[in-house]
Amino acid sequence: MKNIILLMLAMLATTTATSQNQLSVLTAQDVRLLFTGSETYPAGTLNVITRIQAEGYQDKYGYATIFAEYEVGDLQPNYNRYSLNVAYTFNKLFVKNVEASAYAGFGFIDRGFSVYSFGFGGSINYKLNDDFKINGILQIVDRKDLGVLYDTRQLKASVFVGVSYNIKMKK
Known about the structure:
Layout: H1 2-15, E1 19-30, H2 31-35, E2 47-56, E3 62-73, E4 79-90, E5 98-110, E6 114-127, E7 132-143, H3 144-150, E8 154-168
Antiparallel strand pairs: 1-2, 1-8, 2-3, 3-4, 4-5, 5-6, 6-7, 7-8
């Protein structure tokens, strides 16, 4: 497990050599668990994703991104998901300051036992200024952990809302 995390961080670090000289840090909360809860968990349940992402150079329509993602959920048993993802972000859209991204990734889920997992999704981001964006994220994850716990492996969709901050790197 430690080797996978180190590999993900090494891959992310190498992308900064060909990036737009900035990293972004994003944090977002699962909207449903925050406001309404689920069949099992009450409203206000913590389920947060954190991303560190590096953007590639701007091209005609947008830019590619690679990001490491960590998700933690206050579930029983505790839920931790680690993944490495690639995305393409369209930022030359018809609406000023709006970006749309699609991504796919691979990682693992740790709930006291570990299972490999893949995920994909998309986001709509609104650029407040050069440093901050508001993010809406649709995440779909292969929940193999549910197969181990309840014999009900499935793809699960979640919607997150959060904020990202750009960290400028020196040239």
